[in-house]
Structures are given as C-alpha cells and as structure tokens.
Amino acid sequence: MVQANELAINSIGYDISAFNILLTRVKLQKYNLPKLRKEILDILERVDSATKRDRSQLKLWTQENIIYKISEEDNNYLRAWYDHNALNELLTYRHFIETEDYEYKDLLKIILSRSARSARLTTHFDLDFPKQPQTEPYWCYKHSRKCFPTTEAFKFLKRYSLDTIRRIKEFSLKRTDAVGKVYHANSRNVIFPPIDGVITSPPYVGLIDYHEQHAYAYHLLGLEDRRKNEIGPAVNGSSQKAQLQYQEDLSEVFQHAKNSMPPGGRMIVVAADTKQLYGEIAKLVGVEVEAIIHRHVNRRTGRRSNEFYESIFIWRKK
C-alpha cells in the first residue's frame, strides 16, 4: 500500500493481524516532521534518563510496578524472552507512550516493537522464528564468531528512532495524495467495495503462524490476537485435509474480491506454491491464468537451510 501511494493509486487492505494493521497505518500516516522528530527524541531522552542506574528518576518506579499492569501470560512471555535490563528499558519506553501526551503514539509503538524484536534472547541469525530463548554464548553463523545474547534494548531504541526519522522524511518526499485505508478484519467475510484489481501475498499453507511470528509485539503492546482466523497456519500442518481447507478459504477470499472487480480486472498473487495448490484455486475462483512468473528470494535477514522460491500468478477476471 505504501508503493500504491507512491504511484498515486488509491488502495484498501484487510488483514487479520492487528500488528500488520498498526504497521501499515503508521507507514501511511502523514506527519508533521518537526513535531515527529521532537516526540521521538523526547521519549528517547526520557527513557535514557529513567533507566540509568545513577539517576534519581529510577526511584519513581521499578520494573515490578510497571510489569504488574500486564496479564500473567504476557508477563511470563516477556520475562522468558528478555534480559531483566532490556525488559526494564522496553517497559519504561512503553510507560512513557501511555502516560505522556504524544500525538504519534502508534509510531512510537512501532519503534518499540522493532526494538523488542531485536532485543529478544535469541541468536542473531534466527530473528524470524526463534524456538526458545538463547541465554548462553553461541557460535553465530551470521557474524562468523562467538556472540552473546543481548542484555539491553536502549541501543535498539536509539537505532530505530533515528532510522524511523530518516524513513519518514524520505517517504514524505515521495508520497502522494492517494488514499490508503486498512481494516482489521477477516477477508473471508467482508464485503469489498468496488475495486480495479488485487495485489496480495497470501499466507503459505502450514508454514508460518503469523501471530506467533510477532508474539513480542502482541505481548508488549496488548494487541488483539485473532490467530484462530488465520488461513493455513503452521499449527494446522500441511496434510491433505489442511491443503483442501487452505484452497477453500483462499478461494472464498478471491471470490469476494472478484465480485467487486470489473471484467478484465486482474489479481496479482505472490505465493510459494510448493504444494501446487494455486492451479485449483484459480479454477475454483473462475479466473483466467494470464501468466506465472517464478523468482528466487535470496535477500533475507534470517538464516534459511534451503532455497526459497516464489511464484507470481497473474489472473484475469473473465
């Protein structure tokens, strides 16, 4: 949708993930750049002052009376995946988002979530899908040396604060007046408005639990968890039954979208179709397959054990 805005194309999107919706809205929002910069640097300075052990501000609260405000489930997750010091810095940042009169609170939440992702007790090469906390030194495949689990979050808060200011400034020079709207909703049962076409990358069957992938954000920000409505989650596996359900669910989504498109409208679908499911999905939806383009995906931050390819399906409404 960011790309659509750059191209002056109005767009609309739906996602079952509250985190994805928050992220997209933050990217699309218009900002007063001087005020944005002031708020980002202000909260950073507050956290820096409040978490330095030699500052009197620490006496105003402790990690214990900040963390009691969250649920036991969130508490258990955060204590397991973060060093005590890192968690204190993250919770202090969240405390200021909640208590100070900032206009761009959602953007600050994204800075917090980016920092939380990097500050977890995990290896540097497995930020995408860590299975358990890493509390001991380890051999790092990313850096080819012995690395240590992180014990701080402030360096990430600072890094992503400056990076966010830069990114927002760059996009402000490219953005247009095109309208982009996103909704936290289940695409299988919403009624789409009139649209010219669709560009989407659906979930992969039995590969990723998307809510779990961003668990740090859900536990830290208290986002609504709708994982039971995910299509093709990894927890359901990739059995024949799961594949058939996946085809049925996606067909329902695409059929809704097709009904809102004019004849000749196109759907561009990006998917890793390792199970060869999309030919049948196209038949179920009743679209003409104009082209299928294959591409090698090799620019990833995580370490993968095998080659990764995607297909780009170009479908046309008859």
Describe it for me?
The protein has 318 residues and is of the alpha/beta class. It has 2 domains: 31-172, no CATH class; 182-317, Rossmann fold (3-Layer(aba) Sandwich), CATH 3.40.50.150. It has 12 helices and 8 strands. The strands form 3 sheets. A 4-stranded mixed β-sheet has the order 5-6-8-7, covered by helices on one side. A two-stranded parallel sheet has the order 1-4. It has a two-stranded antiparallel sheet with strand order 2-3. The model has no long low-confidence stretch (mean pLDDT 90).
Outline type = globular
Q: Quick check: average pLDDT? A: 90
Indicate the structural class.
Answer: alpha/beta
What order do the SSEs take from the amino end to the carboxyl end, as H and E?
A: HEHHHHHHEEHEEHHHEHEE
Q: What is the alpha-carbon Rg in Å?
A: 22 Å
Could you give the distance between the termini?
26 Å
What are the SSEs and their pairings?
Elements: H1 2-6, E1 11-15, H2 18-28, H3 33-51, H4 63-67, H5 72-81, H6 84-99, H7 105-119, E2 138-140, E3 145-147, H8 154-172, E4 180-184, E5 197-200, H9 210-213, H10 215-221, H11 240-259, E6 266-271, H12 278-285, E7 287-296, E8 309-317
Parallel strand pairs: 1-4, 5-6
Antiparallel strand pairs: 2-3, 6-8, 7-8
Helix pairs in contact: 3-6, 3-8, 5-10, 6-7, 7-8, 7-10, 11-12
